[in-house]
Design goal:
alpha/beta, 271 residues, 2-enoyl-CoA Hydratase, Chain A, domain 1, single chain, four-stranded mixed sheet, 11 helices, 2 domains, Lyase 2-enoyl-coa Hydratase, Chain  A, domain 2
């Protein structure tokens, strides 16, 4: 099912085509820095994609020359941002259950981040929270939180040590280093680096490859990978088995096996 692009807000675009949802941060005039409006619209778009049975894979990208350059610091310094309260007030009661990092972490649909340009701050944490990252050759990944007097506030301190190991993550965070696309590939922060003009075609090709598979199986694999981050091996294998038993009774499991025997491409329906 294909649907025309809709505007979730002026700052986030959402479309579905061939089982792929594309979410685009759309404030290129300020390098897609995160405003309150963008934050809410991004969260809703991710929730919508995860709940939509027609969607089998999600691509998250940005419009213009940046993916996301972090929080809107102009709004922050004027007391209109996400974290600065009026009259010096500091809130310690923040509901993080419905913010992009926690929604991304809980999503069952695979999410590809197509890093089209500069990424920093909140944008860097958001990119790290996606399952697969593809990066344009000219893009740079700035983990420069400490240079701004803050820390990775949206999951980066949990994600990066698990991706790179403690020593390399500590080196990058403590120095506030900016990485080139080639360095990101060397550190395995991204799966591929491609010429700028080929980024979205490559992201769509990868998403199409994922969407061609049995969606319930793909989502279960992601769910098990996420659970496996925090549980012992024996318990994990037990949980995998409990996932597998009902899956073996689905139409898609029967179709996958039959297609293999008949030497043809399977046609999965997500049930």
């Amino acid at each position: 099912m294909n649907r025309p692009e809709r505007i979730t807000s002026d700052e986030v675009l959402y479309s579905v085509k061939d089982h792929i949802a594309t979410i685009t941060l759309n404030a290129p005039q300020r390098m897609n820095t995160i405003s309150g409006e963008m934050l809410g619209a991004l969260t809703q778009s991710l929730v919508d994609a995860d709940a939509d049975r027609e969607v089998r894979c999600v691509i998250l990208t940005g419009a213009g020359r940046a993916f996301c350059a972090g929080l809107d610091l102009v709004a922050q310094t004027q007391g209109k941002g996400l974290a600065i309260g009026g009259a010096g007030a500091v809130s310690t009661d923040i509901d993080l259950r419905n913010t992009p990092p926690t929604v991304l972490h809980a999503m069952n649909k695979p999410v590809i981040c197509a890093i089209n340009g500069g990424v920093a701050g909140y944008g860097a944490d958001t990119a790290l929270g996606c399952d697969i990252r593809l990066m344009a050759k000219s893009a740079k990944f700035a983990l420069s939180f400490v240079k701004r007097g803050i820390l990775p506030e949206s999951g980066g301190t949990w994600l990066l040590p698990r991706m790179l190991g403690w020593s390399k993550a500590a080196e990058i965070f403590f120095t506030g280093r900016t990485l080139t696309a080639d360095q990101c590939l060397e550190y395995e922060l991204v799966s591929e680096v491609v010429p700028d003009a080929e980024l979205m075609p490559r992201a769509l090709a990868l998403a199409s490859e994922i969407a061609a598979n049995a969606p319930l199986a793909v989502q279960a694999a992601k769910r098990m990978m996420r659970m496996g981050l925090n549980e012992p091996f024996v318990e994990h294998v037990h949980h995998v088995y409990l996932q597998l038993l009902p899956m073996m009774r689905t139409e898609d499991a029967k179709e996958g096996m039959l297609a293999f025997v008949e030497k043809r491409a399977p046609v999965f329906k997500g049930r």
